[in-house]
Amino acid sequence: MYDNNPITFLNLNRLPARVDYQGAGVLLHFEPVAIKALVEMGLLKPAGNLRGSEHKYFCTKTILKHADDEKWVNEATRAVSKHWSVKNARRKSRRITGTLDQSPRPLESQ
Questions:
Q1: What pLDDT, in 10s, does the model give residues 11-62?
Q2: Which of 37, 42, 78, 89 has its CA 20 to 30 Å from the CA of residue 104?
Q3: Residue 86 maps to a domain
Q4: How many CB atoms lie within 10 A of CB 30?
Q5: Cβ atoms within 10 Å, residue 1
Q6: What is the CATH number of the domain that holds 21?
Q7: Count of domains forming the chain
Q8: pTM, whole model, 2 decimals?
Q9: Considering the domain boundaries, does residue 66 fall inside one?
Q10: Which contiguous run of DSSP H or E holds residue 59?
Q11: Residue 103 domain-assigned?
Q12: Dihedral sign, CA of 88, 89, 94, 99?
């Protein structure tokens, strides 16, 4: 097994057959959160038929194949960028509407 250090992971004599979110992120140079977004968007498929919140693993050969595919890397990069811009815009709009919708409350007498 490998520790959480990306350098140690990349210096293994033989990569494991499957990797988790963090290992996939190291191989593709994406944050683990971005790997989760790629799974949600259908650009990356976990190994096996997992349901819901089960811990997901990815086939290392598939990850390396994606890493060598320039078209896939460009598509994934754009998708992750769009994912974060939509998420940040949603958060920003909630913040703006939340401050505008709050009306001052009258002080209660004690």
A1: 888 888 999 999 999 999 999 999 999 999 999 999 987 777 778 899 999 9
A2: 89
A3: no
A4: 20
A5: 4
A6: 1.10.1660
A7: 1
A8: 0.73
A9: yes
A10: strand 58-59
A11: no
A12: positive
